[in-house]
Amino acid sequence: MERIKVIELDSVDSTNRYLHDYDGEEGELMTVVVSRNQTAGRGHGDNKWESEDGKNLTFSVKVHPENLPANSQYVMLEAMALAIRSALDAEVKSVRSWSMLEDYDFMFGRSVASGTDCRGFTIKWPNDIYWDDLKISGTLSECEINSSGVKSCIIGSGINVNQREFVSDAPNPVSLSQIMRRTVPLKKVFEAVLAKFEHYLAIVNAGEYAKLKEEYMGVLYRRYGSYGYIDGDGEFYARIEDVGQNGHIMLRRDDGMLSEYEFKEVKFKLKQR
Question: For 4-218, CATH number?
Answer without folding.
Answer: 3.30.930.10
